[in-house]
Specification:
439 residues; alpha+beta; ten-stranded mixed beta sheet; eight-stranded mixed beta sheet; 9 helices; disordered C terminus
């Protein structure tokens, strides 16, 4: 009778599988703390990188937007004040070009400051076109002062203007003055005073501008012409065309890109001419960003987001080995393995700042895989089981690397990977059940 009672006696609650899994679950939650600290460090390093990028842009020039050229004519309205005194109210008539052609050759460069870098560029712009049939313009102004007309070219950041600007109007060269004659349309750029005679009113005013502009990351244009034709080319391999219009034609290769936009006045929301600030020319920009594919900080942060998955799967394998093979693994040993897996993401970030993300990933993953494999052999005293740990980690880190290289299909690939992993876990758990039926 006593023997039957001893045989059927259940194991203590603190030695059950459920309690062990609860302890490991609590351990995983604890490991979220150092993992969160690593993510915080990565974000801090990324913010520092962005600050350095802003400092370089402040000295070299930021994203540039080129508008124009546009023709500005002072107009006057006769107004009477309260006591009947007659005076003139001055405003500006803004006229867009009939034809506008821009050709740009963008030379890019990666500028470094310490371990941080950003993309800058210098572009040679050839801008030509014409204003025609000015005598057909009708306004409600009492007087149009053609003798004090100005032609302006707007540039977002004048610090990016390099060297001499060749500004020719009807085959005559002019020296532009810094600043805009009026801020109705833009606040920075250059202007040329150009009195308009009767022959030009009946005919056309041709312009030909050659200018070197430096900036960072992006170059954009406002298609202000009745017909705007803009062509850009560069040796940069990863352009991102932005703004309201995509190129009509584009070609991207390992040698760089070329792109062309053809825009008419019907594609925009402002007319060919108006008075004052009734309309904005900044609503429909187009251009290109010198896109930098996901940098090492973004990749490191993305990899850290998968950290909890790697930790859970690895610790589950250790738990399965402990239960199926009747090995004893202490909670401290689980903790040390988890900390090693967390350390991977910190090492990855530190190395990627110096040797690039791919080589950093290879070095960090091989280091952590070797450490965990050797440690598992030390605690399990079983080469076969240590090999299974090694194989699992190789698969996990290879899968994570593939996910980081995928942009559009990363979410799909991640879900498929989780589906397969869950299938293996369910199969392994059935072995645990059969191996522990009598416990």
């Amino acid at each position: 009778m006593i023997e039957n009672l001893n045989t059927n006696q259940q194991e203590p609650w603190y030695q059950t599988i459920t309690f062990k899994m609860l302890l490991i679950g609590a351990l995983v939650l604890i490991l979220l703390i150092p993992l969160g600290m690593v993510k915080s460090v990565i974000r801090e390093r990324e913010m520092t990188d962005q600050e350095v990028e802003l400092e370089i842009m402040e000295q070299w020039g930021g994203p540039q937007i080129v508008s124009g050229p546009t023709l500005h004519i002072p107009v006057y309205y006769n107004v009477k004040d309260k006591d009947g005194t007659l005076s003139k109210l001055k405003k500006w008539l803004h006229i867009m070009p009939d034809n506008l052609s821009i050709d740009g050759d963008i030379k890019s460069e990666e500028r470094h400051r310490g371990i941080y870098e950003t993309v800058i560029y210098n572009t040679k712009l050839s801008i030509n076109g014409d204003f025609t049939k000015l005598n057909t313009i009708h306004t409600d102004a009492d007087e149009i002062d053609w003798d004090n007309a100005h032609i302006s070219l707007a540039v977002t950041d004048n610090r990016g203007i390099k060297g001499k600007v060749n500004f020719a109007i009807n085959d005559l060269s002019y020296e532009p003055e810094a600043g805009m004659i009026t801020r109705d349309l833009s606040i920075s750029g250059m202007s040329v005073k150009y009195p308009i005679n009767q022959d030009e009113l009946d005919g056309e005013i041709k312009f030909d501008i050659n200018i070197n502009i430096s900036g960072a990351k992006a170059l954009s244009f406002n298609p202000v012409g009745k017909k705007s034709d803009i062509t850009l080319k560069s040796e940069w391999k990863d352009p991102s065309f932005n703004g309201s219009f995509l190129p009509n034609q584009s070609e991207i290769s390992d040698k760089g890109f070329t792109a062309n936009w053809s825009i008419t006045h019907l594609n925009r929301n402002f007319p060919q001419y108006w008075i004052g600030s009734r309309h904005s020319i900044n609503e429909h920009q187009l251009g290109v960003e010198l896109y930098v594919p996901v940098n090492h900080y973004q990749k490191s942060l993305r990899s850290a987001k998968y950290g909890i998955l790697i930790i859970c799967l690895t610790l589950l394998v250790f738990l399965f080995i402990e239960l199926v093979k009747k090995k004893t693994i202490q909670l401290l040993q689980y903790l040390l393995v988890g900390l090693a897996l967390v350390l991977f993401f910190s090492i990855l970030t530190a190395l990627s700042e110096h040797i690039g993300f791919i080589w950093a990933y290879i070095a960090a993953s091989l280091g952590i895989i070797s450490m965990v494999t050797l440690y598992s052999y030390g605690i399990l005293k079983d080469g076969k089981q240590a090999f299974w740990i090694f194989t699992l980690l190789i698969i996990l880190y290879t899968f994570l690397f593939v996910l980081l290289q995928l942009n559009d299909f990363a979410f799909l690939a991640g879900n498929l990977g989780l589906f397969v992993a869950l299938g293996f876990i369910m199969k392994a758990s059935s072995k645990i059940k059969s191996a522990n039926l009598d416990t």
